[in-house]
Design brief:
Blueprint: H1 6-9, E1 11-14, E2 35-39, E3 43-47, H2 60-72, H3 81-94, E4 102-104, H4 106-117, E5 119-122, E6 125-129, E7 135-140, H5 145-148, E8 156-160, E9 163-164, H6 170-177, E10 184-190, E11 197-203, E12 205-208, E13 212-217, E14 220-225, H7 232-245, E15 252-256, E16 262-264, H8 265-272, E17 280-285, E18 291-295, E19 307-311, H9 318-328, E20 333-336, E21 344-350, E22 356-365, E23 381-382, H10 393-402
């Protein structure tokens, strides 16, 4: 049984979900495949050398295109070597055909980490891809511009301002939607299973969002977990103390993982331990088929409290690990709709100059060894949310089950 070394393993499990921030770019390559020195007076000096281990690679076509663009492209001012290098690197990751393996220039990398801390400027949309690799809304954040405008989980994003999203990477989409608080962005969208597109003009806001919210309905505690970020363990502990100290005491807990896109693997394991005495929470499978199991490592405070978990199609990755572990250990019943279905693990690596690289390094499996990739977790009790009503049907069903 493996112990979780967060190295922080810096392992992230997101529906490649990026909150929308303001951004720019800047990056300098160190001893990478290209050595670039920027000199404002002399322009850009490029030393066309490769590390010895890759000396047999033929980069002649790359340099031929580079030189022809430099010599022949009409708008010389548009030739920005740094951005061309970013584009080349992003093309290299895109060539793998995996939308979750991405290169992030420094500003985007910093902002992605800030997103997990819940402090950002934007419109409150979390982005991902559907099974056909269309850009979609994984989830809108409650009470923020996107949600207030009626944007829903599963909506396809067809255009960002005038830019069509076909072939657009997640970092590029985020950059297009980002901007300072008070500025506007226009999105062209289409609701899932509908034919007609519609436009929404959104005004960006400065946003700080806790990952944990606690409320009480009758004798039931409702614990809403919106992501697994850097501060989630601390916020979770405060929420649990609030549940324990609430008067009168609670007879059950609803763990609401709806529209939770995931986050750090460690967070799902830490949270699962609140409800499990022992046992495997998740398995990690490497490319060679080797598996590691990560188990409960702490004593939880709610081991005996009845629990119902809520999920929907916006529940992904680390949220699916938590829901699946509690379901398979028969510690909780799961209510709602089938979850997103993202079963791969990305390792967040820091690069020279503050850039980042998210690499898919493994698959994650439920304690039983089952993969939910592209399939999702099936709830024990399926309840669809009816947008035509003001009632939260899923929450009401969970409450009914706990108060029987």
């Amino acid at each position: 049984m493996a112990r979780l070394n967060l190295r922080q393993i810096r392992v992230i499990l997101l529906a490649a979900a990026f909150l929308l921030l303001a951004g720019g770019i800047g990056y300098s390559l160190g001893s990478q495949q290209l050595k670039v020195n920027f000199d404002r007076a002399a322009g850009v000096k490029i030393e066309r050398t490769l590390p010895a281990a890759h000396a047999n690679l033929d980069f002649s076509l790359f340099w031929e295109v580079w030189d022809r663009l430099a010599a022949n492209y009409l708008d010389k001012g548009a030739i920005k070597p740094a951005q061309m290098i970013y584009g080349a690197i992003q093309g290299m990751t895109a060539a793998l055909g995996d939308p979750y393996t991405v290169f992030l220039p420094p500003t985007e990398n910093k902002q992605t980490k800030d997103d997990l801390n819940g402090a950002f400027e934007g419109v409150g949309i979390q982005l991902g891809y559907d099974k056909d690799e269309n850009l979609i809304v994984v989830s809108p954040l409650k009470d923020l511009p996107a949600a207030k405008a009626g944007i829903k989980a599963g909506d396809l994003i067809l255009k960002i301002d005038t830019k069509e999203t076909t072939g657009v990477s997640l970092p590029e989409a985020v950059s297009l939607i980002r901007g300072p608080a008070g500025t506007k962005v226009r999105l062209t969208l289409r609701h899932e299973e509908e034919q007609n597109a519609f436009e929404k003009e959104l005004i960006r806001e400065a946003i700080v969002v806790s990952s944990v919210e606690v409320s009480f309905v009758d004798k039931v505690a409702v614990l809403k977990l919106s992501r697994f970020g850097e501060r989630t363990d601390e916020e979770w502990n405060k929420g649990i103390d609030e549940v324990i100290n609430h008067q009168p005491g609670v007879s059950g807990l609803i763990l609401d993982l709806r529209n939770n896109p995931g986050g750090y693997l460690s967070g799902s394991i830490f949270t699962a331990a609140e409800f499990l005495n022992s046992g495997v929470v998740v398995q990690q499978e490497q490319a060679n088929g080797q598996r590691e199991s990560f188990a409960v490592e702490r004593k939880g405070k709610l081991i005996n409290l009845p629990v119902v978990v809520l999920i929907n199609k916006g529940s992904a990755s680390a949220a699916e690990i938590l829901a699946g572990a509690l379901q398979e250990h028969k510690r909780a019943r799961v209510v709602g709709e089938k979850s997103f279905g993202k079963g791969t693990i990305q390792e967040a690596q820091e690069l020279t100059g503050g850039a980042g690289l998210h690499i898919t390094t493994a698959r994650w499996l439920l304690p039983s060894g089952k993969s939910i990739d592209k399939n999702g977790i099936t709830p024990d009790v399926e309840v669809k949310d009816d947008p035509a009503t003001t009632i939260d049907e899923q929450l009401e069903k969970a409450k009914e089950m706990l108060l029987k």
